[in-house]
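[Q] Does anyone have a clean structure-token version of this?
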Amino acid sequence: MAYSIIFNTDVAHVPPAVLAELRRSLGDIGDSISSIPQTSVFWVSIDNSLFELTISGWLFSYLIDRRRDELVVVSVQRAERKTG
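[A] Here you go.
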């Protein structure tokens, strides 16, 4: 079953190319996790977990809602550059 991608945060300021890459990446993640059996301990281990993806200097946080088959993006911000 495919996972839907839901945005619960404003992404209007994110460049379209970055959003396209985010959708591709989340689509791949959804495809991968959809093959994990619902009875797997994996699901217990990630319940209420927050995940992050960094794409072209943008940090996206998302949740996996397996009951609704959704990947929910909950925040976005410019990633801080590490110096040193």
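[Q] Thanks! Anything notable?
[A] Residues 16-33 form the longest helix (18 residues).
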